[in-house]
Design brief:
single chain, alpha/beta, 4-stranded mixed beta sheet, 6 helices
C-alpha cells in the first residue's frame, strides 16, 4: 500500500487511480502520525509553492515527510511535490522547502531568447536520460510525458536522472538515494506514466 500525502494541493484521486491501474494500492494520508505506517509515499501537488509549504508546516506533515525520507523509505514527489523536496523556491518571493535535496526552484527564463518562451510550459515533452533511475526502467530515451509548470529545478547534476528541453534544458527527473522527483505528471502521461508508477510500486 502506497501513501498519497494529502495537503489540499492537486488532483490526488488521479494519482490513486494510476497506482490502482497498475495493480497497486494507494490511500490518502491526511494525518502526519499515519504516514509512518507506510514504506512508500507519493507527494503530488499542483499550485503555489508557498501555499503548499504553509499547509505542510501548519499541519506538521513537513516533519513527518522528512522523517519518512530520513528513515530510508521510498518517497516520490510529482510536479509541485517534486519542487517541495528542494531547499527553497523563488516563486513569488522566497520560501523554504523540505530541504531533502540540495537545490532551488526558479522561474523559466522566458526572456533568454529572441522569441520569449510561453509560460507556463504545458503539453507533451520528452525526457533526455542522463543517469540510471529505477523509475525509468523500461522507458526509452526521448520518452514523452505531460508537463504543466512555470517553475523548474536548479540542482547539482549528480541528482539529475533526465532533462527536458524547453528553450533550454532543465532537470525533469531527479533522484537522491530513496528520494525521487518527476516534474511531469505520470498520471496524465498514459502508458509511459503508468510504467513509472508501476516501477515505484515494485521497488
Amino acid at each position: 500500500m502506497i501513501a498519497v500525502i494529502d495537503y489540499k494541493m492537486g488532483n490526488l484521486q488521479s494519482v490513486i487511480n494510476a497506482v490502482e491501474k497498475v495493480g497497486g494500492g494507494a490511500i490518502l494520508v491526511k494525518e502526519p502520525k499515519d504516514l509512518k505506517k507506510y514504506k512508500k509515499a507519493i507527494l503530488p501537488g499542483v499550485g503555489a509553492f508557498g501555499d503548499a509549504m504553509r499547509f505542510l508546516n501548519q499541519s506538521g506533515m513537513d516533519e513527518a515527510v522528512k522523517e519518512f525520507a530520513h528513515e530510508g523509505k521510498m518517497l516520490l514527489g510529482v510536479c509541485l511535490g517534486m519542487q517541495l523536496l528542494f531547499e527553497k523556491s523563488l516563486e513569488f518571493g522566497k520560501h523554504d522547502g523540505l530541504g531533502l535535496i540540495e537545490g532551488e526552484v526558479v522561474m523559466f527564463d522566458k526572456n533568454r531568447f529572441d522569441t520569449p518562451l510561453k509560460i507556463p510550459h504545458v503539453g507533451w515533452n520528452s525526457l533526455n536520460m542522463k543517469q540510471q533511475n529505477p523509475l525509468l526502467e523500461g522507458l526509452n530515451d526521448n520518452t514523452y510525458l505531460y508537463f504543466v509548470h512555470s517553475f523548474h529545478i536548479k540542482t547539482d547534476d549528480k541528482y539529475v536522472s533526465a532533462v527536458t528541453h524547453y528553450g533550454y534544458d532543465f532537470a525533469s527527473v531527479v533522484q537522491k538515494n530513496n528520494i525521487f522527483g518527476f516534474q511531469p505528471h505520470p498520471e496524465k502521461s498514459h502508458e509511459n506514466g503508468l510504467k513509472i508508477y508501476k516501477n515505484f510500486m515494485e521497488l
